[in-house]
Amino acid sequence: MDNALFSRRRAERFAQLVDEANGGRRHHLRSQVDDQLAPLVALSRQLGSNPPAAEVDQEFRTGLRAMLLATAAREGIGAPAAPQPAEKTSAGRGSLLPAVTARRARARGAILVGIAAGAIAVSGISAASENAVPGDALYGMKRGTERAQLALTGSDISRGQLFLDFARTRLAEASALRGSRAGYSAVLDDMDADTRQGVRLLTGAAAQRSDPAALDTVDTFVTRQRRALDPLTDRGSRADQERTAQSLALLTSVAERADALRAAIACGRPATTTSDFLGPTPGTCP
Q1: What pairs with residue 276 in β-bridges?
Q2: What burial letters (b/e) apply to 119-145, b meaning 16+ CB within 10 Å?
């Protein structure tokens, strides 16, 4: 058997086992390497539930941030690209070559982005951008790291938890942007979008499995998020206060949906065939 093919299949099976261990859909198959991969799966779950606390030296963080900002300015990262003149192509089959080349270039670019995102998390660049807020040069890198995390997450439960983590991050950013009316409102918009997406995934998983365990994560999120959001209700302009009230109202709706879905699961009617922005609509108990 080709070694590369064997390694790829082994890696794919490991990814399936990790996904199943995290609550993902079970694959109805057994592999000869399952017993060999079991210790690695257990280690993966242990690291996921108790991630090691990585301490980054403040001097290193400051130096790395300065280097990245200088590199971004020198290379023109973030600046709009200058329009390129269209190239003339010959008719017929030859005219397809530029399109094929462009697709291959985009594919290579996507691969490089994925590799770069992994390198960001490992090398500490994410630590340099973790405190960035909208308007900072490293904020795009921070959001890119979040997208990479989502791409590497398999199950709906894990993705839902990750979206709620992002919502908490957006709230921390909003607290730092209270003086910027437009920025504050935009960050709360992103926060609410992450909240809805995370809740929709978790309530969907709870309804599909008739298991309220995923709703515990929603309840914990609502409690902590409301506690952090309450102090902002009387700060800033009237428009800021009204926008904060909208996010609090969303948290109230989330809490009510989680309670209703938990009750529906308890009486054996977890959900109807309809859904909305918070996920499946709970069934009506007799």
Answers
A1: 279
A2: ebeeeebbbbbeebbbeebbbebbbbb
For 172, what's the count of Cα atoms within 13 Å in the CB-facing half-sphere? Answer: 11
Q: Which residues of 41-57 are buried (b: 16+ CB within 10 A; e: fewer)?
A: beebeeeeeeeeeeeee
Handedness of CA 128, 129, 131, 137 (dihedral sign): positive
Q: What is the pTM of this model?
A: 0.60
Amino acid at 131: N
Helix, strand or coil, per DSSP, at residue 257:
helix
Least confident of 115-129, 179-193, 206-220: 115-129
Helix and strand numbers (H, E) in the chain are 10, 2
Smallest CA-to-CA distance from 48 within 24, 32, 31 is with: 24
Tell me: the pLDDT tens digits for 64-78?
666 666 666 655 555
